[in-house]
Amino acid sequence: MTRMRMFGSRLLGFFRKRRNDENLDAEMRWHLHLLAEENIRRGMPPQEARYAARREFGGVEQAKEAYRERRGLPFLDTLWQDLRFATRIMAKKPGFTAIAITTLAVGIGANTAIFSVVHSVLLLALPYPDSDRLTVVWSTFSSEGRGPASGPELIYLRERSRLFEEFGGIWAQSGAITGEGEPEHVRLGLVTSNFLSMLATKPQVGRFFLPEEQGTYAAKSVILSDPLWRQRFGANRQLIGQSIRLNGHPVTVVGVLPPDFKIIFPEGSSVPPDMDAFIPFPSNLAKDPSDQCYIRVIGRLRKGVTIPQAQAELESIGAQLRSEFPVFAEQALGLQVVPLHGDVVRNVRPALLTLFGGVSLVLLIACANVANLLLSRANERQKEITLRAAVGAARGRVIRQLLTESVLLSCLGGAAALLLGSWAMKPLLSLRPAGIASLVATAFSLPVFGFTLGLSIAAGILFGLAPALGTTSLNLVECLKEGGRATRPGRQRPRKLLIAGEVALGFVLLVGAGLLMQTFVSLLRVNPGFNSQHVMTVRLSVSGVKYQTHESAILFFRELQKKLAASNGIESVGVISHLPFDDTLPNWYSYYWAEGAPKTEQNTVMADYRSILPGYFQSLGAQWVAGRDFDAIDVQEDRPIVIVDDTLAARTWPGGSAIGKGLNIEDGNFRQDATRVTMEVVGVVKHIQSHSLTDQVRGQIYMLYPRAARAHMALTVRSNMDAQSLVGLIRRKVASLDKDMPVYGILPMDDYLEKARRPARFTSSLAVVMAAIAVLLACTGIYGVASYSVLQRTSEIGVRMALGARPGEIFAMIIRQSLLPVLTGVFAGLILSLALTPLLSGLLFGVRPVDPVTIGTAGVLLFGVGMLACYLPARRATRLDPIAALRYE
Q: Measured between alpha carbons, how far apart are the two ends of the chain, in Å?
């Protein structure tokens, strides 16, 4: 307690320094006055009495210093002195200070911007209660992983698990709110009664679902999102308990979710983050078909349970499921548990860590540049430092002063970096891929500020250490001589080593950027299997009471297709259940096998199932391989025929024709009496990339819409009309058939293609920016060192020219000596890139990690930049006047 009181007293004394000094001066004057008065009474003359009093009292300044050390904090006093001195030094050289701060702002700002994304995506916990215990449970099959679960699976997990507190599930669909006002499309989530309570503490208004509200076979209650509640219903709190019409049915609003609530699910789960409304599952999940898998399952672990323990339990439950359900045994069903947060960021983690490593190299290059500037300035301050050492300044004191200057300089660069980083966030976020769109915070947080401060201090120590330590090797006698410059050749070595390091790191960044750019260019060249130009897509949902039968839905789409196709400017119109690269609705995929295939070849390979009407392939510009398209007669007669892609045809009938062959597939309408049917293949089309531009995930099977009726379909309209006119036309044609039908999801097909390219565009664009910054910094560093070398060797160059050296020889000498560290850096960068670029293999497509062309181009570019940076100083050296150069000292 006494120590704390003493520290508090010293800290208070530090902040009351001026007042305490004034009181101390007054007290000392009073003591001196008393001693002088005493001497006068003893008979001394006044002037002699005052001198005697001073001699008796002792050194006044020494007493003051001793008192200050006892009453204050000497370290803070010294630090404050160092900061004031550093500020004066920087103010004397505003050009140097501006260049150094700008260089550091670029290096630290790039790290700040990327770290803000890394922190939000990889480090920050999900905004859910006990989010560290939330997991995703995936169903795995013989040849497929990361699949949804069926209703019986979810119920079985709830009954058999002991390591999980609870399980919840969601199935993303679409719906429409009708009644007052225009019909409005909503992204609808069918959920278990406990799903929302697992992800939110409490609703904003009302309550969550009750257990008895699930499985009633008619949705009677709904919970709204905050945006829908505000935009559609004006944030009316009296809405709770009232009825609205959802998909033509009356439902009661029982709650409104908090404003910041959003669904954050892994990419590929087909669960969008911006869900508008939620209703309980209307069916009894336990009585669903066992192989009808559509539910995305999350679970909450009990406290203290680890993922390996949970996985072991799920493997045991999976074995029980296979033993009790024959269909699960045939499909080799398994269960996999992964942390929710880890699964959400699994696709973006490698790219973000790669970019974070890249900006770290940019910061090292910036530090090397500033270190070179400080080394040059240390020579200019050589006299000052020598005098301080000569009058008794300790080595540690001088080093501390110089490090204080560099740290202050770095902190100023960090402050500028925050401004630069906040400005850079907007273009950075505009490039972000869909995998992190729902996670990235747009404003800097306290951890980001802390990171920037810590990085600034560390950078200041890093680039200030070499110049500070260099002051201890000074020869005081030589430096104090008139004109002594102490510029031994060896003192150029640190600057050349820093330049070599800059070039090496820049080489690595150039190679990485080149590889990522080639990946992006390769993606631009990928043939997706269709022509996206001049194709507009529109989403429609026939889920209301008007379309309770398949016949009514079929009639609507056929009539709409006819009306649009007959309009001027429309080339073709298609209808499909799942658009390429659109994951807003759950994907539909299942097993298939050739008719008559042995038991061992059944339930082994899956394909994507698609429901279409004639005209889809023409509207999308798909490429035919064999056979024919569906036609109106096929739809009218509901023929049992399918079209497959060339990937599936080659796998199922290698070396033969698929046309006329029978294919055993899942029944598209899920009739209980016929879960599988055999259909004839009438056409083969080129594989259409639907999930990724780089991988053919699964083959594709196209069924006629009557054979696979879906409530949520999309139009693909190929037209030469402008987008605004085309969208207006589509809305009018839809309204003429059904005025309550909402039209939504209006996007050009080019946008879906761009979405597939966005991750590669994100990484390649940022890599190119980092490489450009690295090259610019390396160029300025090389130029600075070459210019300083010419300046230091002015007298030597003058002597050489006086003795007959030609300008060309001087030019060649400067170029040769200045390019030596550049060549060294290129060689070191080559070795580093060969070691590091294989780490990028997961981000590359269409190019090898060790690409000779990319490496060679990076080397040539850096050598050319080095040559350009050395040219101006070398040219300046050839124009020196020998007489003026000899008088330079």
A: 63
Indicate whether 773 and 861 sit together in one domain. yes
92 within a domain of the structure (yes/no): no
Given a contact cutoff of 8 angstroms between Cβ atoms, the answer to whether 225 and 212 are in contact is no
275 within some domain: yes
Q: Which residue type does 248 have? A: G
Residue type, 781: G
Whether residue 517 is found in the same domain as residue 377 = yes
pLDDT of res. 484: 45
Round to whole Å and give the CA distance between 654 and 647: 10
Residue ending a domain, among 711, 740, 769, is 740
**Mean of pLDDT values over 688-702:** 89
Tokens describing residue 288: 């669903």
Cα 724 to chain centroid distance, Å, stands at 33
The b/e string for 858-874 (b: 16+ C-beta within 10 A; e otherwise) is bbebbbebbeebbbebb
102 CB-near residues (< 8 Å, 6+ apart): 413, 416
Domain limits at 687? Answer: 543-740
Widest pairwise Cα distance in the chain: 137
Distance CA 26, CA 16 (A): 16
C-alpha span between 243 and 250 (Å, rounded): 6
pLDDT band at residue 394, thresholds of 50, 70 and 90?
A: low
Both 393 and 517 in a single domain? yes
The one-character DSSP state at 152 is: H
**Domain membership flag for residue 338:** no
**Which residue reads 């050739």 in tokens?**
594
Same domain for 394 and 291: no
**Paired tokens of 145:** 């992983």
Whether the model clears a pTM of 0.85, i.e. scores above it, the answer is no
**Percentage of the chain with pLDDT > 70?**
85
Tens of pLDDT, residue by residue over 141-169, are: 877 888 899 999 999 999 999 999 999 99
| Residue 844 and residue 723 in one domain | no
Q: How many whole angstroms separate alpha carbon 267 and alpha carbon 434?
A: 8
